[in-house]
Q: What sequence folds into this?
């Protein structure tokens, strides 16, 4: 039996900032150790004590709606969890809820992105095997990234997500409006003086990187289109050899041989294109979303810096006027900004490192698929056809 | 008629083994037993040049001329290296020669010329007759044509062919028999083998032309796929500029993507050679069809002559016996206007006898012509079939080898790119 987290009895669990600066620094130290691991994220598993998986999609049909749920399995040795293993079913909405909760409760951290929420009903089949498969892989990645994060993985909302029988999500709405207001409040009055150079560099990098990824996406789509048209012509081309073979005697075998090779080529191409659209493009697009998240975090950081600078300026002016001391709030703001900056820098490093691994894997995979394609096409030509010819 | 162009063997018919040196004759396989021109003479179409001049309607035009070079084989075999005799000819002159051969040897499957205009082009190749690649491929095609003709056991002995290769001569247009080949007529008893051959030639023509069209479309698409990959090169390079550790790997990988995109040009250029081989047999199919049609023509003429003879004999019988067996206009007018005078009847009978004698000669002639054509054509069609099977088999093997080579190149380039990605 699972112990219900505080959520279900109405107690707000939201933590608006980390417990204390010192505990945060402790966690950052842990982060340093983990940095070593992030170079080889799946290699060193001794320090990892939380493992999550998303799989087994199932369709649910009710009178109101049809939707897909996924199995979320957890294995952990952490004391924050009551049991060592959990197995729950969650749908996309639930992942979305988790993400919003994480964003709200950890505003200074980079939250990994989710796959696209809305899909054009007429254009994409939400229940097709490919779509569900692609989405599931993205959800799995999202959850793994959260579970690997030294701060986010300890978030109670994650705990609830992984362990609760039924997620009570009503809390989310109330909090959402609260957060919305505070953001507005901050944005209303304050303007930041200058973004510190290291964050400027981050911003520029993200802009350019996002642009390049967009270009790669377009190139990949173009390749898919060209390959598809090539495939169409190739199919007809192959059948022509077969039909010619029908009117020949001596030449029948070599002609059928060529027809067979063309067929192999077609199959290979289908696989190549499928891989491109199922595996390559989704990962690419997900990173573009990730970049957007990053940019949002940078903006939030700017906002909190602006708030601090604004309050500080106001307080200094008042002090000059009537010697009112600098209020605690201002110091709290300063703490907040410094935490934010530290969190962001740490997250940035780990994000860069993960990005390097992810793209190394992605591009190497693309190269491998192309190599496999050529090897597959070449084999029957060498083995079968030349013996037919002789 | 068919004997006009033939000449006595120019040189002594050597049974001695004067086989052409491999280096001197790239189409060794075409040299057959018996004395063909190719054994006595090395032939090549060495160069192509642009000329301009006034044409038949006195308008300025530009055209290409081809240099035909010939050298005596015995000189080469003795190790001497004499300067070749040479002359320039343009495509239309080759056409005249071929038309002459078709008419003079109607039972021979005459080798085809390379295409007059560039057909089956995919977008990268131009359809311009002046395009250097087209001219070059045509030069090779013309040389191929001459070598095939000069190594043919029958065609190679033709005097006009010899003059074409060695002297500057004009050619008159083909005679009316060529026109007869394209007429439509119904034959009662065609040789079954010829009808099958004609059907086969239609099939061959249809298959090769469809294949050539499809191949051009496939080439077009494949070109697109490869070239788009070149964009990766540029974007990887731009991306590498903002990266630290990943930069070098990305940059080098980009270069390999550029190489991949560039590799398609050579690949498709090589494939054109395969297309040319298919084209040759597309046109050969037409030549085969012409031989079959010629059979139909001679058979038709024979049947007409026989029919004519039969009807004349019937008329004679009617005239002699007065019994009208068949309905005829003459018979009717006789009935209506009365019989004619005996002198007139005698005159008509005499004329008929003459016509019948002529008719019998014609039937004999046509029968011989028909039988000869069937015999000779069957021999050459067998020869053609063997040649076709051998050539196309070789072409298909070469095509398969080209595909293997393309795959190997692909593996290499992507392998190199992978190495770079791993270093990121």
A:
């Amino acid at each position: 039996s699972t112990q219900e987290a505080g959520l279900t009895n109405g107690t707000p669990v939201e933590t608006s900032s980390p417990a204390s600066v010192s505990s945060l620094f402790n966690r950052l130290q842990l982060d340093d150790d983990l940095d070593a691991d992030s170079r080889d994220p799946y290699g060193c598993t001794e320090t990892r004590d939380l493992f999550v998986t998303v799989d087994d999609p199932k369709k649910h049909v009710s009178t109101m709606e049809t939707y897909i749920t996924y199995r979320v399995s957890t294995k952990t040795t952490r004391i924050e969890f009551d049991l060592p293993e959990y197995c729950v079913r969650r749908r996309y909405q639930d992942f979305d809820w988790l993400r919003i909760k994480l964003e709200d409760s950890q505003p200074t951290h980079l939250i990994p992105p989710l796959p696209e929420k809305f899909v054009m009903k007429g254009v994409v089949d939400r229940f097709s095997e490919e779509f569900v498969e692609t989405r599931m892989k993205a959800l799995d990645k999202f959850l793994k990234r959260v579970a690997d994060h030294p701060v986010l993985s300890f978030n109670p909302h994650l705990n609830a997500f992984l362990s609760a029988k039924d997620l009570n999500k009503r809390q989310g709405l109330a909090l959402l409006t609260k957060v919305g207001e505070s953001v507005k409040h901050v944005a209303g009055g304050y303007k930041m003086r200058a973004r510190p150079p290291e964050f400027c560099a981050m911003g520029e990098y993200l802009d350019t990187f996002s642009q390049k990824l967009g270009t790669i996406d377009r190139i990949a789509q173009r390749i898919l289109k060209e390959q598809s048209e090539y495939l169409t012509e190739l199919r007809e081309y192959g059948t022509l050899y077969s039909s010619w073979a029908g009117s020949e005697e001596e030449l029948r075998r070599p002609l059928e041989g060529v027809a067979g090779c063309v067929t192999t080529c077609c199959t290979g191409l289908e696989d190549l294109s499928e891989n491109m659209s199922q595996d390559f493009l989704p990962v690419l697009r997900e990173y573009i979303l990730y970049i957007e998240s990053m940019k949002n975090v940078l903006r939030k950081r700017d906002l909190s810096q602006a708030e601090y600078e604004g309050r500080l300026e106001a307080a200094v002016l008042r002090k000059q006027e009537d010697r009112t001391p600098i209020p605690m709030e201002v110091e709290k703001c300063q703490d907040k900004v410094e935490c934010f900056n530290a969190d962001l820098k740490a997250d940035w490093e780990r994000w860069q490192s993960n990005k390097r691994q992810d793209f190394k894997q992605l591009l190497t995979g693309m190269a491998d698929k192309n190599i496999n394609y050529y090897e597959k096409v070449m084999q029957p030509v060498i083995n079968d056809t030349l013996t037919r010819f002789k | 008629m068919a004997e006009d162009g033939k000449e006595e063997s120019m040189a002594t018919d050597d049974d001695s083994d004067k086989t052409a040196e491999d280096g001197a004759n790239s189409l060794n396989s075409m040299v057959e037993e018996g004395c063909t021109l190719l054994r006595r003479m090395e032939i090549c179409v060495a160069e192509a040049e642009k000329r301009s001049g006034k044409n038949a309607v006195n308008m300025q035009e530009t055209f290409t001329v081809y240099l035909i070079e010939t050298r005596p084989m015995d000189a080469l075999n003795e190790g001497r290296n004499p300067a070749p005799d040479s002359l320039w000819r343009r495509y239309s002159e080759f056409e005249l020669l071929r038309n002459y051969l078709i008419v003079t040897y109607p039972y021979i499957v005459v080798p085809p010329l390379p295409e007059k205009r560039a057909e089956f082009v995919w977008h990268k190749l131009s359809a311009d007759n002046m395009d250097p690649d087209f001219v070059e491929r045509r030069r090779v095609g013309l040389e191929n044509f001459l070598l095939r003709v000069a190594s043919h056991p029958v065609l190679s002995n033709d005097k006009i062919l010899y003059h074409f290769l060695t002297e500057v001569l004009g050619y008159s247009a083909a005679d009316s028999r060529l026109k007869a080949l394209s007429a439509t007529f119904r034959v009662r008893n065609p040789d079954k083998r010829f009808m099958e051959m004609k059907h086969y030639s239609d099939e061959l023509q249809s298959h090769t032309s469809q294949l050539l069209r499809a191949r051009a479309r496939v080439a077009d698409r494949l070109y697109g796929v490869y070239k788009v990959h070149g964009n990766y090169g540029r974007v990887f390079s731009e991306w590498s500029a903002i990266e630290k550790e990943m930069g070098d790997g990305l940059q080098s990988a980009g270069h390999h993507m550029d190489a991949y995109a560039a590799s398609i040009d050579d690949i498709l250029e090589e494939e054109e050679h395969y297309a040319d081989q298919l084209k040759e047999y597309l046109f050969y199919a037409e030549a085969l069809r012409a031989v079959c049609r010629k059979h139909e023509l001679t058979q038709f003429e024979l049947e007409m002559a026989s029919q004519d003879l039969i009807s004349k004999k019937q008329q004679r019988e009617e005239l002699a016996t007065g019994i009208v067996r068949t309905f005829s206009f003459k018979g009717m007018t006789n009935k209506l206007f009365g019989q004619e005078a005996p002198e007139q009847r005698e005159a008509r009978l005499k004329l008929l006898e003459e016509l019948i004698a002529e008719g019998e000669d014609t039937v004999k002639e046509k029968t011989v012509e028909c039988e000869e054509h069937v015999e000779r054509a069957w021999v050459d069609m067998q020869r053609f079939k063997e040649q076709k099977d051998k050539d196309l088999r070789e072409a298909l093997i070469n095509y398969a080898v080209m595909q293997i080579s393309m795959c190997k190149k692909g593996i290499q380039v992507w392998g190199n790119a992978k190495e770079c990605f791993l270093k990121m």
